[in-house]
Amino acid sequence: MNEAAVGSYLLAHWVELAGAVTTAVGIWLTARRNLLCWPITLAADLLYLVVFYRVQLLSDTLLQVFFIAFTLYGWFHWWRGVREEGEVRVVRLSRSSGLTAMALGVVGTVILGVLAKRLNASLPYLDASLASFSLVASWWQARKHIANWWTWIIVDIVYVGEYIYKDLWLTAVIYAALVILAVVGLRDWRRAPVAA
């Protein structure tokens, strides 16, 4: 690929590139338990809302709306925790909360899949499953549960395949990098102080 072709590709996919960069920075800051992760993540959510709508991954488009809400909630929740405890502390996830969230992920998959299929979305059930379990991971992230990283590792690996299939190469590459960042986040959060 020559420079002109690379430049043309980047110009045509600048929103995707901006979303990829802001996503990577947001996840890295999240792994570091830095409050700046939230405004950066909000920008990424908005950029990817546009990217996914353009390629008709409707579950992922809807997911970005929920991500925006969870990002705003997480920002407030983490900020309040820092104000009260002086830092972001990891919170243990109870077995019942974990099982409930996983069951909701399955229910969300079915509901979003049926809706996406009726709207003639691309890859309706796969996209719905990834969207639903991304919501579970996002909720756990906002609530500071270490389980969010395990969920992100699995979901992001599957997303890489979906994005390659949809010819979203920049996004596939960034999601491969997000798997690595999730492993780093898991490692760092295991070392973090746990809330009482």
Number of helices: 8
Instruction: Sketch the major β-sheet.
Output: none
Radius of gyration: 17 Å
**Class inferred from helices and paired strands:** mainly alpha
Give helix and strand order, one letter per element, not per position: HHHHHHHH
Percentage of β-strand residues: under 5%
Mean of residue pLDDT values: 90
DSSP helix fraction: over 70%
What is the terminal separation in angstroms? 55 Å
Which descriptor suits the 3D outline? globular
Number of strands: 0
> Which spans of ≥5 residues are poorly predicted at pLDDT below 50?
none
Task: Please describe the topology of this protein.
Blueprint: H1 3-12, H2 14-31, H3 37-54, H4 58-85, H5 95-118, H6 124-142, H7 147-165, H8 169-191
Helix pairs in contact: 2-3, 2-8, 3-4, 4-6, 5-6, 6-7, 7-8
Structural description of this entry:
The structure is a single chain. With 196 residues, the chain is mainly alpha-helical. Helices cover 81% and strands 0% of the residues. Helix 3 packs antiparallel against helix 4 (58-85). The longest helix is centred in the middle third of the chain and has 28 residues, at 58-85.
A few lines on this structure:
The chain is built from 8 helices and no strands.
Comma- or semicolon-separated keywords:
single chain, 0% strand, globular, 81% helix, 196 residues, mainly alpha
